[in-house]
Amino acid sequence: MALEHAILVSLLEQPASGYELARRFDRSIGRFWTATHQQIYRVLKRMETDGWVTAEEVGQDGRPDKRCWSATAAGQSALADWLRAPVQPEAVRHELAVKIRGAAFADRAGRADLVAEVERYRADHEAVLASYLAGERRDFPAPDPGDARAALQHVVLRGGIAYERMVLAWLDDVLATLRDLAR
Questions:
Q1: Which positions fall inside the Transcription regulator PadR C-terminal domain (predicted)?
Q2: Is there a contact between 122 and 175 (Cβ–Cβ < 8 Å)?
């Protein structure tokens, strides 16, 4: 997937300034497709040149004008073409998993250090799960099955929730295994 497609999806959900778009990536889209603010602005310019997006100058009181970006018909067409293309499974690159396998060659102190790292990593995933669950309570208190946009946003969020729960269960297994080896 290209960043262009993630931006098109976001702009079709709601037009936005580059800053607002970057904040959406920081809050939600970024959990499954990351981009820096600079990448977003660079890609928006390229998409504008390609005719996929257009920008409207919006005046602001006491602040500089901002550009509010929207997807064009050409952008919608490009997204429709991309949606029809097959998706290949992604290769997983997981540094922690390699470290866990490498712990077979570490001494007790090295494995103890790894336990601390897995606990820290687990805490990070626990925080992400808590934010997803809070977002679900906030954004989807009473889902409307007739609202396709909300239903699809919610199913992606549920996928993130399920993923975080799976990672936490795996990390609990890793910690139990490391602790068993320490005995």
A1: 92-179
A2: yes
Three-state secondary structure call for residue 35: coil
Q: Find out whether 60 and 51 touch, Cβ atoms under 8 Å.
A: no
Amino acid at 136: E
Q: Cβ(21)–Cβ(7) under 8 Å?
A: yes
Q: Element (H or E) spanning 167, and its range?
A: helix 148-182
Instruction: Return the residue matching tokens 């993630």.
Output: 6
Tens of pLDDT, residue by residue over 17-34, are 988 998 888 777 766 778
Cα 81 to Cα 43: distance, rounded to the nearest angstrom = 19
pLDDT in tens, 96-110: 999 999 999 988 888
135/124 Cα distance (integer angstroms): 17
pTM for the model stands at: 0.81
Separation of first and last alpha carbons in the chain: 46
Neighbours of 58 (CB within 10 A): 11
